[in-house]
Amino acid sequence: MTTWTSDELNRIGGADELEMSPLRRDGTLRGPVPIWVVRDGDHLYVRSFRGTDGGWWRTARANHQGRVRSGGVDKDVTFVEVTDSEINDRIDTAYRTKYGRFGGAYVNPMVAARPTTLELVPR
């Protein structure tokens, strides 16, 4: 399994947004969608603001592959669903800490979107 470099983690984890392009069933990439990304240790995570109704999330969950761009990093990734409650608790805190300046109208839906948590694993 490939891992993120320290530089990639710092660049992506420090960026406000990440461009997400999940792979469709026909093998093409969806157009990029800007989303929030958080870091927990050596791992990067995303959630769908629209919950399970998010189009990019449904595509990512169906195929588990795509491409992300952020902080000058352009990388193919595997999307791994996260159900562990301890990890999700840390991700909740990461969203509140990193994006709290945008207010509850934006952060609260991200915290409530726990069922959509995906880890980004580089390929």
Question: If you had to describe this structure to a student in words, what would you say it looks like?
Answer:
With about 120 residues, the protein is of the alpha+beta class. The protein has one domain: Electron Transport, Fmn-binding Protein, Chain A (Pnp Oxidase, Chain A, Roll). It is about 35% helix and about 30% strand. A 7-stranded antiparallel β-sheet has the order 2-1-5-6-7-4-3. Strand 3 (about 35-40) and strand 4 (about 45) form a beta hairpin. Helix 3 (about 85-100) runs antiparallel to helix 4. It is globular, with a radius of gyration of 13 Å.
Features of this protein?
single chain, 123 residues, alpha+beta, Pnp Oxidase, Chain A, 7 strands, DUF2255 family protein, Split_barrel_FMN-bd
SSE topology:
Layout: H1 6-14, E1 18-22, E2 33-35, E3 37-40, E4 43-46, H2 55-63, E5 65-70, E6 73-81, H3 85-99, H4 104-112, E7 118-122
Helix pairs in contact: 3-4
